[in-house]
Write a structure and sequence with these properties.
This protein has 510 residues and is mostly helical. It has 18 helices and four strands. The protein starts with 6 loop residues before the first helix and ends in a 10-residue tail after the last helix.
């Protein structure tokens, strides 16, 4: 029996019709792990140069522990890279190198300050805490396969965060604030861990209730549309918790961070400027009330308004005045690593005021480079939030990036005398085990989220398949006949064969 064929179909290569009916596979995005490794090598090289420069400036020779510090940091970088390559192969290649470079530059600055305080060497302890942070970074990537696994336990995270924030009330105050838990020789700042847990809770809450928090009508203040009264509960509750925390613990930094984080994530979830307006009004009201009533906070506000008052009264410059002097001495290019006098700031030089050391010894150029590194890290976090395409993940990435943004802005503003000092530490850069460990957890979560955002998604197949043409070519030689698609009924070549064909079966016949 012969069949009529179309000459054009006869010239088509076998199997082409089936290939055209199948949608093309998604174009894989480059994983860029090689670029990440190259950036890590550059980061370690910059850190090694910083250690060498400090040694030559302070003692005229290379530091004796140069190989130990740089080798240890290089080993941490290699371990982190291997974990990312195995567990998050499509992650953003910039997050890890930038975090490592900031952490390493912080170690260099702390090591430089150690040279002036032989009895208080903080760089070895900071390297140890960095090791713990990288270990937690690896643990998060290994055990957290999907960021959505965090969402069902958001309530537990919120309860844990509240307990952590309340715990320092039971311990004595340190430098006027109750923000530390001291057990023996170990000290922890629980608010650093609470900020990550609260970011997870806020992301879960706002992802589930963002439509209820979106308002189209409400009271107006001139042209400003405010949220309706019935949806003001969450923001008022967070405002109240922040205010109580500020009063009981005198922790300006944590109170400002938690409240600002919630307002920022509210704006990301709803896109309503009214939330920002309400947040600013509540923050201003709380700050004015506590600043007038709480002596510790009131003193910081007075120091901010009159940083040179102590000099005029004959008591010598305070920490803020010394910080401003350090920035002025640094100028555009800085005095050089190891050649400044930022030790005059006092005990806070390695924590609250480490940016003053960077400004004096690296100048405005070096300080700008540090801020650009933070900007790159934060921009990558916001880029992940835009690309992930899932509400909880997008809000979580935006919240984690907002934590770094708020800390850097508030700390830089306090050290430069633009806003009152808050007591927070610069992420990755300043001395503080709780801070560096928590920041590495933030990096791990952003790496996990960026891996999800950058992983190629398979395109959905069409809902209905197109029927093959009547002249579908026969299977290629060597293929099984039963695996080929069933051909459509071909036209019969002659009338005799048509007459010989059996009649079609009736409906319901086997």
């Amino acid at each position: 029996m012969t069949t009529a064929t179309d000459p054009a179909e006869a010239l088509r290569p076998p199997g082409r019709a089936r290939r055209l009916a199948t949608p093309p596979p998604p174009v894989p995005r480059p994983r860029r792990r090689g670029a990440e490794l190259a950036l890590l090598v550059c980061a370690v090289a910059v850190i090694a140069y910083g250690y060498a420069a400090v040694g030559y400036a302070t003692s005229g020779a290379l530091p004796a522990d140069l190989a130990t510090h740089v080798g240890g940091l290089a080993a941490l970088a290699l371990v982190a890279h291997v974990v990312v390559r195995l567990r998050a192969p499509c992650a953003d290649p910039v997050l890890l190198p930038v975090a490592l470079l900031l952490n390493g530059l912080g170690l260099v600055l702390i090591h430089r300050l150690d040279q002036g305080t032989p009895g208080d060497r903080a760089a070895p302890a900071q390297l140890l805490w960095s090791t713990v942070g990288v270990a937690l970074f690896a643990g998060v990537l290994v055990f957290l396969r999907d960021h959505r696994d965090l969402r069902p336990r958001a309530g537990n995270y919120a309860f844990t965060a509240l307990c952590l924030m309340a715990a320092p009330i039971l311990f004595p105050a340190v430098n006027g604030a109750r923000i530390w838990i001291r057990i023996g020789g170990l000290s922890l700042q629980p608010s650093e861990f609470a900020k990550v847990l609260l970011a997870i809770f806020f992301a879960a809450y706002l992802a589930a209730n963002r439509h209820a928090l979106t308002f189209t009508s409400g009271p107006r203040i001139r042209r400003l549309l405010l949220p309706p009264r019935r949806v003001l509960g969450p923001i008022v509750a967070v405002w109240g918790i922040s205010l109580v925390l500020l009063i009981l613990e005198r922790d300006i930094g944590a109170s400002l961070l938690f409240f600002s984080l919630f307002v920022a994530m509210l704006y990301v979830a709803t896109g309503r400027f009214g939330w920002l307006a309400v947040g600013l009004l509540l923050a201003a009201a709380g700050a004015a009330a506590v600043g007038a009533l709480e002596p510790h906070v009131h003193t910081r506000v007075e120091d901010w308004l009159s940083p040179f008052r102590a000099i005029e009264e004959g008591h010598g410059p305070g920490q803020l005045a010394q910080s401003l002097f350090a920035f002025a001495a640094g100028g555009a290019l800085g005095a050089g690593l190891g050649q400044g006098h930022s030790l005059l700031i006092g005990f806070a030089g390695k924590s609250d005021f480490i940016l003053a050391t960077a400004g004096e010894e690296l100048g405005i150029a070096g300080l700008t480079a540090l801020f650009l590194l933070y900007a790159i890290f934060v921009a990558r976090g916001y880029r992940t939030a835009i690309s992930i395409g899932e509400p909880f993940g997008a809000l979580l990435a935006a919240g984690l990036a907002a934590i770094i943004t708020l800390q850097v802005v508030v700390i830089a503003g306090g050290v430069l005398g633009l806003i009152p000092l808050t007591g927070m530490v610069t992420p990755f850069l300043a001395q503080g085990g709780s801070s560096v460990v928590t920041n590495w957890v933030i990096v791990a979560l952003l790496v996990r989220l960026s891996d999800e955002a950058r992983t190629p998604k398979e395109e959905p197949r069409p809902a209905t398949a197109t029927a093959p043409a009547p002249s579908e070519p026969q299977p290629e030689p060597g293929t099984r006949p039963d695996s080929a698609p069933a051909p459509a009924a071909a036209p019969v070549a002659n009338d005799a064969a048509r007459a010989a064909a059996p009649p079609p079966a009736a409906d319901g016949a086997p």
